[in-house]
Amino acid sequence: QVQLVESGGGLAQPGGSLRLSCAASGFTFGSWAMSWFRLAPGKGLEWVSGIYTDGSEAFYAAPVKGRFTISRDNTKNTLYLQMDSLKPEDTARYYCGRLTKGGFTSVDNYDLWGQGTQVTVSS
Predict the structure, then answer these.
(1) What values do phi and psi take at 26, rounded to 5?
(2) How many C-beta neighbours within 10 Å does residue 114 have?
(3) Is 105 exposed, middle or buried (CB count within 10 Å of its CB: 0-12, 13-18, 19+)?
(4) What DSSP designation does 89 have?
(5) Contact at 8 Å (CB) between 87 and 71?
(6) What value does the mean pLDDT take over residues 90-109?
(7) How far is it, in rounded angstroms, from Cα 65 to Cα 101?
(8) Are the C-beta atoms of residues 104 and 33 closer than 8 Å to each other?
């Protein structure tokens, strides 16, 4: 019953926006730092953004800094990723993950993942 469920993906035009959500259940969401990752065709899993337990600090990979905004609402057990100024290279399946140890950027530091939501940016 411990799970993460992503939603909000879809088709967007270059320059458009999407808002992804990650609904958590079965654990105390506010006690865990969280991140978004993405998996593009022919590429490995790429860390996108991470956020502290209380939302006090957020971190971004260089390709998305200034365009994406990570946030969380611990009263709703939900993590968000607001994606603006989308580019075709943002096309990927996006996953949320629960950080269990270490730094944000290493995939090995996460112990729980959602099923992902597909984002396609194309005209």
Answers:
(1) 85, 5
(2) 21
(3) middle
(4) G
(5) no
(6) 97
(7) 24
(8) yes
